[in-house]
Design brief:
The complex is a heterodimer of chains A (about 280) and B (about 200). Chain A has about 280 residues and is mainly alpha-helical. Chain A contains 11 helices and 2 strands. Chain A is elongated and about 95 Å long. Chain B has about 200 residues and is mainly alpha-helical. Classes of the chains: A mainly alpha (about 280), B mainly alpha (about 200).
Chain lengths: ~280, ~200
Amino acid sequence: MTMPAPAHISPDHDETLIAQLAAADLTGPVAAAARDLVAACPACAELHADLRSIMAATASLPAPRRTRDFRLTDADATRLRGRGWRRLLGGFGEPRLAFTKPLATGLLTLGIAGLVFALAPSFLATAGLSMTSATAATAAPAFAPAPGDAGAAAGSSQQGTKQDLAASPAASAVASAPGPSTAAVSIPVSAPTPQVSTVAGPAGPSGAPTALGFGRESASPSPAAAPPDNNFSAGTLGSGATAPPAGPSPMLVVSVLLLVAGVALFLLRWAARRPG
Amino acid sequence: MGDLRTTATPDDGPQRRDLILVERAQAGDLAAFNDLVTCYQDQLFGLVARMVPDHDQASDVVQEAFFSAYRNLDRFRGGSVKSWLCRIAINAAMDLQRARKRRPVQPYPELEDDSWQPPTGEEADPERQVVTGERVRVLTAALAAIGDDQRAAIVLYDVEGYDYTEIAQLTGVSLGTVKSRIHRGRLALRRSLEDHMELFRG
C-alpha cells in the first residue's frame, strides 16, 4: 500500500526512507543519503522528528488495566482437558481451526454437485427409456434389415434392440433410422455414457454393418470380416461385446467421498463445540 | 516428554520458573497453570488490549488464549513460555480481528471511555496531566485507526519491546514484512496525528 505524501513534502523525497532512518534501520551509503535528505529538506527533517516523537510516545503508552482475573477454575480445567474422544475432538472447536467450517461447506457443495453431475445421465437415460419405448413402437415398421442380414436383424431385434433403446436416446435414434444396411448393435445397458453408445457405420463389402464405438473386442470379429456363410448375427455381436457391468463411475465415488468428508467435518465441529 | 528445564539457561530465573510450572501443569496441577496465568495475565492483557482496543473483546481474547494454552499444554516443546503464551494471544487477537472484518461492528467503543486514563505521579502538575492524557487519547485513537497488521507490529515493537526477528516469528511473516508494516504504520500514525502533533513535539 503506497500512501500519498503530504503536500509539504516533495514527491521526490521518499517517506519510507525517512521512516527507516528514524527507526535506525539503515546502514552504509543509504543511511548517509537519508541523512543528507533530512539535513537538506526541512519537511523531511520535520517528518523525521515527528516519527521519533511518535515512537517515544507509543513506547510510553500506559498499560491498559485488566478488569478480569483469567485464572482457570476447576470446571474450566475439566471442560478443557476432558479425557477420551472429547479431548481428541477439542481441537476442532478452537478458533485457529475455524477454517474447517467453510472447508466443510465447500466439501459438501462439491460432493452434492458431483453427485448431481454423476447421476444426471442415469436419470436422463431412465427418462429416455420411457420416451423411446413409445418411439420404438411407432418406428418398428421402418426398422427393416438389409436383405442379406435377415439373421442379424432377427437376432438383434430379439436381444439388442431394447437394450440399445435403453442405452441412450441418440443410440436409439440411430438404430431406428431406416436404411438398407443398418443394423442395431447391442451395447451394455449399464454403460449409458455417450462414448459407449454405438452407431451403425456404413456397410462393409458384404453389406454387413461395421460397428463403430466398440473396442478391440468387437472390432476383431467384425461382421464385415465374417465368412459369408456363418450364422454370425448382430445378436451374437451384442452378447459378445457386452462387458460385465462396470462399477460406479469415479466421479460418483469422489462425490460421495467429498460429501461424507464434509458431513464428518460438520459433525466433528459440532461435537467439539458442544458444551459439557 | 523430556525435561523442559534443560531448555532454559541457568541464569534465566523466570524461564526456569515457567518451565517448572508448565511441567507441573502438564502433570495435571491446575494451581501451577494458574500461577503462570498470574505471572502473565497483565502482560498479555496489555498486549491484546492495544491490538484489540475494545477492552471487553480484549478480555475475551486473553481468556481464550489461556484456555487454548491449557488445552495445548502437551504440545509445548520447550523454549520461552512467555513467547509461547504471547504467540497464542496474538493469534487469538488476529482471529478476532479477521472475524470483525467479516462482521463489522461499531469500532472501538473503548475510545469513548474516559475512565481509561494513564497513571500519573502524585506530584504531576494538572496541566502536564491534561496534556499527557490528551496525548494518550489521540495516540490510542490513531493506533486504532491504522491497519490491524501495522498496529500489531508497532505494539509488539514499540510497546512490548520485541525485536524484528521475534515479531516475525510471533506473527508468522517475513522480517521484511515486519519492518515494512512498522514503517508504514508509523507514517500512517503521523498522518492521522497531523493536527495534534504539537502534543508530541513539546
